[in-house]
Description:
It is a single chain. The protein has 284 residues and is mainly alpha-helical. The chain has one domain (29-54, 69-283). It contains 11 helices and 3 strands; from the N terminus they run αββααααααααααβ. The protein has helices spanning 11-52, 75-104, 111-136, 142-148, 152-172, 174-179, 184-187, 192-213, 221-229, 231-243, 260-276, and strands at residues 57-59, 64-66, 281-283. It has a 3-stranded antiparallel sheet with strand order 2-1-3, covered by helices on one side. Strand 1 (57-59) and strand 2 (64-66) form a beta hairpin. The radius of gyration is 21 Å and the shape is globular.
Amino acid sequence: MQPETATPSSAPQQTNTSKFLISALNGTALYVLAYYLVWGLHQAAKMEVSHFYELRGRWNPSVITYSLADNEWFSTAVIAVYSVGPAVCFLLGIGAFWWFWRQKRAHRGQLKLLLLWVAFHSCNAVFGALLADTFTHSGFWYVPDWVLRMGNVANVLLALIAGLVQLALGYFAAVAFLQAHDSRTVMRYENRRLMVVFTLFIPWLAGGIFIALTKVPYFSLHEGLHLLMMGLLILPLALSCQNEVFSETVRRPKPTYVAWGLVGLAVMVAIAWRLALSPPVLFG
């Protein structure tokens, strides 16, 4: 007679895995949608200022470039063109986070996570962008360079401070990020490492790769560095989430399901952006 052995069912484990996979897919869709919202407003504001100053250039799916000679630029135009996008994103980020924190974090649904990703992308469009653009002497870097006129050392120090601010904001955003999720399984503290992988790292990496692939061959080093700078927010956020014991969620959360509408919308927005700006739009 063979001794009986306990064979625990794999059904609960499979169910938990499926919930994390669904959370990763939904989170990636929200990451992409938030990126295009922030980036779209950033570029639209830059184009409005470019038209106001009658500047010439090209707008492709990845970046706006100018065809002016150095002696055609003047300080007001430089500062306005390269500061308006970050200024719009700064206000957008504050508004999105305020809406999330004051009105949506205790409610069910995907909107609160979308608002938080909008706030994160907006933060990156200011602080991460300044650090990235200082490496390449382009974009947002022109603003402190032309305003301060204190040389490269001062510009680098300012960029490093911006990077530290982004690191700090990521670390202190843990409680907000945890409150943006409804699933009890995802929110359990013993599942925190899985949560960090599936709701933070996968949306950041998969979302970034998807954005890059939909813009090839126009995808630029400028935009690639901006996407990488998001890591300055994601990494400390992931560390802080693992140290944070908060594990509560909303009352009566909805069952975890794939938000196919959001996934489809993210794909359609990316395709529409590519088609609208390919071939590049000439202006001026």
